[in-house]
């Protein structure tokens, strides 16, 4: 009999690419969400605090066990789990919860719920997706304590004895790290997003996942057949036979293509007519280097150093910065690493930097502007950079440059930092290229003058699009208007490339548009020298470039430059003939 099925389709966020089909297994976390408030008598307060401390201790022990038993291939994610361990004793959670129990005479569950929501709200107001990912960390850590408080069973993924698709409100990085690949096909969750650590681990394990589905746990029952399409961020409950067949075929095609592309990820991105593009990876944390290397990246084209500042409650020391920069530089050697100096504020506000109280932060004291006003903070970073530069192939890049004066000032501070190290007898190197981000329209206009001061330009299309089109990159209400293929942005890119060529200055793009395989004909045709992208996009982007012709792409880009509107750009792009094997398959890998 043919199964009609209801084909219920849910749209979420792709946590990790891939497709899987299987029986649902609901991870039950009853008890964590339904918490009641009650008052504690003064004589019971000490016991209540102890009950809270015991739950925290038990949670710490559980997590320590996970860390100790972490499989080898996940070792580079240790720091994520260790950061969770540190959160258990964080003042914001631990200290405040105890204060609430004592001060408000309330039960431990309610106190924890209260402080966790306050901490969540604090981070949630910040538009930066990385910091929003940290909201997940707070939720996961407080959920684990809560489970131990209410006596609920922890998710025991290790005991599942059939091959299933996990369905959960949320999975912690620790849960995900314990997944036994032979038992779990993939997972879907109510919460979480692309930058959550759970999805980072899922990508490492290559487990298809869809996250941020809202209430998928209420819609799926145990043993329901579900399809998880991590490429499209789609889940289908109760699929018909026809849909099942369609997805079986999609899955087979995807897996064959992925295996083929991955096998070829170390092959350079050389077009059919012999032009090679250098393709590098963007990283935020040192541990991401492994992905860049695994996926065939030829260096790190953007090291966003601000994340070391965002993940703590005070400015890092020179030594802490130096250690990390040195590690990255040594690991990627002989390939280069482009260290971008601090790009904070804007959408990446530093809680401990008072300067961030601004009406219009994207146009405020952000990045190089902040650094030039706070030479103390900037010099610490520059000294760490100069010291680490002695250990590999480093390039240094200044963000959000809007004019020549800023470059001169930044370079002068770099010289001053070198002079200090020299005087102190501390080893360092000044032998590196200096570049700037091209992400402010005024810099693009002044590109010919800026070219005299630097060795390379790196176009930050994320911000260049924001500032050129006056569209806040983090504002959902105008997200439909935000598009880096807008003719105005394309013209700016072309201008920077032309100036670069005329002045012997290398030009790279390190914004998100460089991660899109479908955009490669444009970027190749515009004659960018280098691209730097999300590491996971490297194999598919490389494969795309290898199938393209440089001369055809150039003609195509010339045609694009004639476009008047985004619609025209889209029409010209639709007309472009992609190499056959890439047709319809430009999903991330
Ligand atoms: C950009 O603006 O394109 C860029 C790469 O920098 P960030 O996304 O860190 O602002
Ligand atoms: Mg930027």
TrEMBL record:
User: What's the catalysed reaction?
Assistant: L-histidyl-[protein] + phosphoenolpyruvate = N(pros)-phospho-L-histidyl-[protein] + pyruvate
EC class, as a word, reads: transferase
Q: What are the residue boundaries of the PEP-utilising enzyme C-terminal domain, all occurrences included?
A: 260-547
Provide the primary localization.
cytoplasm
Q: Which residues cross the membrane?
A: none
What region holds the Phosphotransferase system enzyme I N-terminal domain? 11-134
Q: Where is the PEP-utilising enzyme mobile domain?
A: 161-233
Q: Which InterPro entries match?
A: PEP-util_enz_mobile_dom, PEP-utilizing_PTS_enzyme, PEP_util_AS, PEP_util_C, PEP_util_CS, Phosphohistidine_dom_sf, PTS_EI, PTS_EI-like
Needed co-factor(s) = Mg(2+)
**Which keywords belong to this entry?**
Cytoplasm, Kinase, Magnesium, Metal-binding, Phosphotransferase system, Sugar transport, Transferase, Transport
The UniProt record lists the EC number as 2.7.3.9
| Highest taxon, organism lineage | Bacteria
> Where found in the cell?
Cytoplasm
- Give the protein's function: General (non sugar-specific) component of the phosphoenolpyruvate-dependent sugar phosphotransferase system (sugar PTS). This major carbohydrate active-transport system catalyzes the phosphorylation of incoming sugar substrates concomitantly with their translocation across the cell membrane. Enzyme I transfers the phosphoryl group from phosphoenolpyruvate (PEP) to the phosphoryl carrier protein (HPr).
The family note in this entry says: Belongs to the PEP-utilizing enzyme family.
PANTHER family attached to this UniProt entry: PHOSPHOENOLPYRUVATE-PROTEIN PHOSPHOTRANSFERASE
Protein name stated in the entry: Phosphoenolpyruvate-protein phosphotransferase
- Name the gene for this chain: ptsI
């Amino acid at each position: 009999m043919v199964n009609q099925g209801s084909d219920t389709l849910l749209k979420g966020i792709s946590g990790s690419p891939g497709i899987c089909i299987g029986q649902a297994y609901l991870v039950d976390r009853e008890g964590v969400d339904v918490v009641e408030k009650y008052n504690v008598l003064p004589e019971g307060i000490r016991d209540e605090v102890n009950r809270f401390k015991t739950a925290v201790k038990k949670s710490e022990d559980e997590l320590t066990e996970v860390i100790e038993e972490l499989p080898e291939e996940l070792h580079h994610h240790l720091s994520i789990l260790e950061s969770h361990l540190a959160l258990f004793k964080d003042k914001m959670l631990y200290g405040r919860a105890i204060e609430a129990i004592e001060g408000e005479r309330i039960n431990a569950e309610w106190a924890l719920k209260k402080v966790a929501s306050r901490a969540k709200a604090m981070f949630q107001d910040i538009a930066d997706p990385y910091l929003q990912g940290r909201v997940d960390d707070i939720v996961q850590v407080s959920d684990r304590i809560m489970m131990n408080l209410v006596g609920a069973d922890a998710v025991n993924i290790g005991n599942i004895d059939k091959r299933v698709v996990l369905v959960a409100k949320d999975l912690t990085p620790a849960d995900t790290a314990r997944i036994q690949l032979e038992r779990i096909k993939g997972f879907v969750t109510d919460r979480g997003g692309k930058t959550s650590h759970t999805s980072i681990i899922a990508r490492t394990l290559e487990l298809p996942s869809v996250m941020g589905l809202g209430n998928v746990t209420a819609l799926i029952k145990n043993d329901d057949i579900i399809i998880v399409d991590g490429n499209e961020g789609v889940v289908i409950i109760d699929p018909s036979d026809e849909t099942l067949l369609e997805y079986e075929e999609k899955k087979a095609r995807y897996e064959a293509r992925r295996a083929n592309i991955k096998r070829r990820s170390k092959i350079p991105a050389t077009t059919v007519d012999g032009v090679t593009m250098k393709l590098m990876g963007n990283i935020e944390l040192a541990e991401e280097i492994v992905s860049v290397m695994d996926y065939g990246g030829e260096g790190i084209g953007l090291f966003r150093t601000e994340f070391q500042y965002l993940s703590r409650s005070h400015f890092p020391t020179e030594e802490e910065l130096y250690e990390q920069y040195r590690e990255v530089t040594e690991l990627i050697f002989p390939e280069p690493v482009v260290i971008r100096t601090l790009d904070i504020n804007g959408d990446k506000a530093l809680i401990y930097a008072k300067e961030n109280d601004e009406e219009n932060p994207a146009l405020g004291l952000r990045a190089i502007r902040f650094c030039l006003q706070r030479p103390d903070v900037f010099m610490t970073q520059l000294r760490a950079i100069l010291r680490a530069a002695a250990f590999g192939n480093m390039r240094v890049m200044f963000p959000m440059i809007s004019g020549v004066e800023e470059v001169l000032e930044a370079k002068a501070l770099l010289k001053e930092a070198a002079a200090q190290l020299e005087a102190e007898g501390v080893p360092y190197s000044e032998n590196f290229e200096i570049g700037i981000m091209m992400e402010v329209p005024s810099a693009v206009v002044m590109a010919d003058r800026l070219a005299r001061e630097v060795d390379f330009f790196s176009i930050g299309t994320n911000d260049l699009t924001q500032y050129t089109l006056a569209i806040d990159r983090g504002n959902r209400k105008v997200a439909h208007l935000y598009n880096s293929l807008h003719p105005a942005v394309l013209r700016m890119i072309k201008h920077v490339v032309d100036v670069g060529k005329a002045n012997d200055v290398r030009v790279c793009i390190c914004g998100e548009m460089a991660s899109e395989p479908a955009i490669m004909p444009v970027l190749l045709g515009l004659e960018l020298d280098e691209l730097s992208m999300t590491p996971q996009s490297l194999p598919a982007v490389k494969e795309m470039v290898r199938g393209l012709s440089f001369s055809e792409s150039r003609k195509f880009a010339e045609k694009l430059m004639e476009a008047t509107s985004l619609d025209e750009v889209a029409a010209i792009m639709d007309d472009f003939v992609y190499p056959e094997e890439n047709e319809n398959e430009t999903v991330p890998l």
